[in-house]
Amino acid sequence: MSNEQIILEVKGLTKRFYGLVAVNDLNFQVKKGRIHALIGPNGAGKTTTVNMITGDGPQTEGEVLFCGQSISKMPIYARAQLGIGRTFQNIKLFSTMTVMENLMMGAQSKTNQNILTWLFNVGKANAEEKTLREKAEEVLNFIGMYRYKDEVVSNLAYGRQKMTELGRTLMTDPKLILLDEPAAGLNPSERKEFIDIIQKVYEKDVDMFLIEHNMDVVMNLSHDITVLNFGCKIASGSPKEIQQNEEVITAYLGEGYRQKMAKEAGKNA
Description:
- The chain is of the alpha/beta class and 269 residues long.
- Helix content is 43%, strand content 23%.
- The protein has two domains: 1-83 and 174-269, Rossmann fold (3-Layer(aba) Sandwich), CATH 3.40.50.300; 93-172, no CATH class.
- The strands form two sheets. Strands 6-7-8-3-9-10 form a six-stranded mixed β-sheet, with helices on both faces. Strands 2-1-4-5 form a four-stranded antiparallel β-sheet, covered by helices on one side.
- It is globular, with a radius of gyration of 20 Å.
- The model has no long low-confidence stretch (mean pLDDT 89).
């Protein structure tokens, strides 16, 4: 019997859209202290799976468990309060706000502020805002974005916007972050910087679950990989096992990837 803790588990997860089965009877576990990747062709059901985990798109059947607790019927904010954070393939920031304001907005679900607080206890509201600002400054320093804190988000380069979104997610004190295509749209230097920050976050005892098409990122960053094709799990295992899996090569990685791996193995021999 394994002593490894399971931070996230999906059981029989299924999503149907008007008769179309987008995800079919999906089962996997994300182990604590490990980075887990979900890969597969476009339309395989990866983002739909993440939406079911976060509550952005309810499942048709099945169950999602977080730290052993069923969260399948919880609203999005309740899952966030438990410790599930998320970044999006298409960045979702407040484009007319500054970087600092975006991060502070990200932590609102963790505060006790409401309209009555503002009306009848301005002192408390101001104290909470001060605490949030200090925390946002810490996060911005951690991700190397402090010098951009007063920049309006729409004026930032795409890579900086992605980093801002990650910072906003960190403001919620997540136990697990779901990253949807973190390397997409980044140039090589931005990609390296972003992956380095993800590694730093992971080393702070935050677990990671990522969707990613860049196989260099997946194979170098992940400990465990689950592969989807047409909404069904076709394989799971370590990066090495996935690289050698014939069904995965046929359905997704392709012969070109096999040849690339063989060439690299020859160089290292």
